[in-house]
Amino acid sequence: MQDGLYLFNLRPNRAAGQHKAHVPRSRSNWCKIAFVSSGPQLTSPQPRERNWVPLAVAASVMVTAGIIFFFAYSHGAGAPKATPVDAPLDPYAASLPITNLAMSRSSNFIGEEITYLDGHIANTGNRTVTAITAQVLFRDFTNIITQNTTQSMQLIRTRKPYIDVEPLSAAPLQPGQGRDFRLVFDGVSSEWNGEFPEIRLVRIETR
Questions:
Q1: pTM as predicted
Q2: I need a surface site. Which of 16, 28, 148, 203 has the fewest CB within 10 A?
Q3: Rounded-to-integer distance, Cα 151 and Cα 181, Å
Q4: Domains and CATH numbers, the chain
Q5: Could you read off the pLDDT tens digit of each residue along the chain, which spans 207 residues?
Q6: For residue 86, what are the β-bridge partners?
Q7: What one-character-per-residue DSSP string does 35-97 give?
């Protein structure tokens, strides 16, 4: 092949019995057949296997961040506003003596330390209690208040296999009745003196 051309020698067929004729070898006896290139051949790229590891890591990080944000927001949104330390007690508070205080601590699954304040409350009055708002004051070694929190009191419904609580609205405290209660704190001041905090019943709903 020369310059993209194929050269073919065109010679007459020899019939049987014919003598071999002398054919001069001239380039006029050659036929040129040109082959035109169709251009570069396009081939389909081989599919590459996708690496899913970065996507899986990113999804895991997003889920974890979402869980942490949810618990942080739910705790912050449910946190009650601080009540002034000189706020007056509810008039019915004298009919609800509190005894048998006990405190404990534990950690939740995201590593936050939870403090529990348990006790017993009795209704010595003549009205049914449907809700109690308690102000809890933590003090340091100089008797200065270092933490002031206010929350609704929850009654202990069961103790086994774990302690479960319910609001007073679900199980009102009848006259002459006593129930165990629990108050829960997401965090306690590092300056707390370790003694039982003061519990002040600043709002009581009755019927």
A1: 0.58
A2: 16
A3: 12
A4: 91-206 (2.60.40)
A5: 444 544 445 455 554 445 444 545 545 455 555 555 555 554 555 656 666 677 777 777 777 766 665 555 454 444 446 788 889 999 999 999 999 999 998 877 777 888 999 999 999 999 999 999 999 999 999 999 999 999 999 999 888 888 888 999 999 999 999 999 999 998 889 999 999 999 999 999 999
A6: none
A7: -----PPP-PPPPPPP--HHHHHHHHHHHHHHHHHHHHHHHHHHPPPPPPTTPPPPGGGGG--
The answer to whether residues 93 and 173 touch, using CB atoms and an 8 Å cutoff, is: no
Residue 128, classed as helix, strand or coil, is coil
Residue type, 60: S
Nearest by Cα to 205 from 168, 151, 155, 157: 168
Peptide bond into 47 cis (omega under 30): no
Q: Which residues of 152-169 are buried (b: 16+ CB within 10 A; e: fewer)?
A: ebbbbeeeeeeeebeebe
Distance CA 137, CA 192 (A): 10
How far is it, in rounded angstroms, from Cα 129 to Cα 181? 13
> Is there a cis peptide before residue 161, judged by omega within 30 degrees of 0?
yes
